[in-house]
Predict the structure.
Amino acid sequence: MFTIKLNLPKIDFGVGINTGDAIVGNIGSEDRFDYSVVGDSVNVASRIEGLCKIYKAHIIISEFTKESWDDSYLIRELDFVKIRGKKNNLKIYEVMQNTTENYNIKIAYERALNHFRNGDKTKAKELLFKCTKDYNDETSQIFIEKYL
């Protein structure tokens, strides 16, 4: 038995998931049509997917999707974001691999968010630095740079 090691690039991509109404099917004219999905909820999912690079997350879901998911997923709140074309900010969440380390990151990060929202930026920054230092959590560093 032997193993072949290939020097292929790492595949790294993000997924944005939103829940809502959409139109699905063959869209176009009789001469030219494509099977597609359109609608406001699809546009929001696309915008969320674009946030994966910013937040260093692989799967980001909207608050509408989180409402329908159960506790078997490890989900941490990330932020409130402005979505182009939407009046209200949208709460977004990261779906994380269910490990003890990620659970600890989730708890510390969400505690930091609570401190931040209650005006205690010093405690929020302390907790986020801890996530960055102890767990190498890039999202915590991004939050520090964005808000603190």
